[in-house]
Amino acid sequence: MAPQRYNSGMALKEVIALIDAEIAALKQARALLATGSAVTIAKRKPGRPPKVQPDTAKAPKRKKKRNLSPEGRAHIAEAAKKRWAAQKKAAAK
After folding, report:
1. Are 89 and 81 in contact (CB under 8 A)?
2. CA 47 from centroid of its chain's CA atoms
3. How far is the CA of 32 from the CAs of 2, 54, 64, in angstroms?
């Protein structure tokens, strides 16, 4: 006995009608592609695409470099020396 290929509830004529509808849709899609009315996809060249250069007008502004004054540097150095002295004193105990 040959294996059953179709659902028992679906008649052979229904299957043929579905296949014919699919063939008609595929023929219509092929005709659209053949006439060139469909959207064309540009072929890509091999290799990495070129890097897009940003507009100079839209380039973000660089922040001004902040310089530390000698007084500020001395203040930070003094605070670091106090901190190190406290750590050294705590480690000695």
Report:
1. no
2. 19
3. 41, 38, 59
What is the rounded CA–CA span in Å between residue 90 and residue 80? 15
> With contact defined as beta carbons under 8 Å apart, do 32 and 38 qualify?
yes
Residue whose entry in the numeric block shows the structure tokens 């004054």: 69
What does the pLDDT read at residue 86? 95
Q: In this structure, what are the phi and psi dihedrals at residue 27, rounded to the nearest 5 degrees?
A: -65, -40
The 10s digit of each residue's pLDDT in 13-57 is 888 999 999 999 999 999 888 887 545 667 788 888 888 766 655
d(CA 29, CA 37) in angstroms, rounded, equals 11
List the domain boundaries for the chain: 9-39
